[in-house]
C-alpha cells in the first residue's frame, strides 16, 4: 500500500496548472495507492474563485482517479463562493467510489491567507482512520491532537510551507508526527506563497520528501505500524505511545486560564 503526494509548480493559468496536475496523477499514481493528497491552493493562489465548469471537471477527474485506482483522494483546496457569504477555501476527501466522505472549508482572510476553523473530521476507511486538515489548522497544537485522540492514524494535509522559516516548518511536520504518534502526508505546491516541502512523515522520521522540485511522491503505508507504536511500553524501548496517550488532564485548567501551577505550588509551600 502507498500514499501519493502531489507537488507542482503553478502555470500561467489555473486551467493549465490543473491539466498538468491531473495528467501527472493519471500517469504516476499506481493501483498500490490507498491515499492521494493534493495541496492547499492546488491550482493557484490569487484568491479568485475557481470557475464552476473547471471545478466540476477537476472533481470529475479526481473522482475518476479514485475509482480507477481504488484510492482515497484529498482534492487539495481551491476557492469557492459560499452561498450567501464570502469566498472560502474548500477541500474534499473522495472515497474509492468517487463520493465525498469529508468536506472542510475555511474563510479567506483579508491578506489572502486561509483562516482556521473548529471542525476536524476523522474518517474510518478500510486502510485506517484518517484525519483531514486544511491550511494553518495543521500548524496549531490542538487540531492534529484532537484528530489523533479521535482515532486518526494518518493525517492528510492540504497545506503549504509559506512562512519565512521553511526549514523550521519542515521540521515541524516530523515533530507533529512524533508528538502525536501519527503518520502525516503533507502536500504543498510550488510558486507564489508556497515553497514546496511536501513530505510523508512517520513518528520515526521522513519516509518521502519533495524539496523544491515538481514531483509526485510515493511512500509506503502500513496502519499496523502506527498501531504498534501506540501500544503501551513503559520501558520506552519499542514504542512511542507516550506522544499521544501520556497526558495530564488535571493541568487543562492551567492551560486554558494561563495559570502557573508550578509557581502557585511553590508559593503555597513557602507560605
TrEMBL record:
Keywords: Hydrolase. InterPro entries: Aliph_Amidase/BUP, C-N_Hydrolase, C-N_Hydrolase_sf. Signal peptide: none annotated. Pfam families: CN_hydrolase. SUPFAM superfamilies: Carbon-nitrogen hydrolase. GO terms for molecular function: hydrolase activity, acting on carbon-nitrogen (but not peptide) bonds, in linear amides. It comes from the Bacteria. Residues 1-234 form the CN hydrolase domain. This is Carbon-nitrogen hydrolase family protein.
